[in-house]
Amino acid sequence: MKKILIIEDEQNLLEMYRVRFEKAGYEVFAVNNGQPGVEIAQKEKPDLILLDILMPSQDGYEVIQILKKDPKTKGIPILVFSNLAQPEEIKKGLKLGADDYVIKTDLTPTELTDKVERMISRAKSPLEKLKKRVLIIEYEVKISQFYKEKLIKEDFEVEIANSGSLGLKLASHGDFDIILLNMAMPIMDGYGILKELKEDLRTKRTPVLAFSDAAGDQEISKAIEMGAEDYFLKSKISPEAVMEEVKKILKSKKNNN
Q1: N- to C-terminal Cα distance for the chain?
Q2: Does the keyword Phosphoprotein apply (predicted)?
């Protein structure tokens, strides 16, 4: 049975997630402060720690530092789950050693449970045995569905975002292996989305494959300079070639890790 340790000072949230993870088949350890959480982590060696930041006496940042310095606990994945949404707070948590950082209001209980399951699977399984996850940021439904079906046939897991804001939200907590990004998105265009992806510590290393209906050399060069792996024009590349490009980028990523 997989073990999860929840360190959260809000009693209602603590109890809700304790019950939810128990129903999902986990052995759950739930505490409302950092110090007992550290002691349980050292004794029980859970498969994952779900950690709030703002707590009395010993906050989440202190907990991360202690656990990551201890040889017995430094390998345990830590998912920070906090109301602190400022970029500097997220950056601090990740730099101290948290494996990921999500904002409480960004995830439903079901989404959080799914994320925990993915993180544990990635920590326990050889990476080559896991299905690769693709995020498609595309406002044209027919296009996104078309590529989703193609990718699923190639054994990928796929999620779709039809706006830049949703794409950034999903990317920040979706554990994606690659992002397909339409650079001609409305409201927030692809360049704005790409900039935010590359500035966020949670997504800066996720490969981005950019595309659009039309683009000049300057636009393509700009996307590459901003961090996109490549840029294709929908009218000039076959779906099969797109699939091969995705596989090539992921293979390169694997070899570089």
Answers
A1: 30
A2: yes
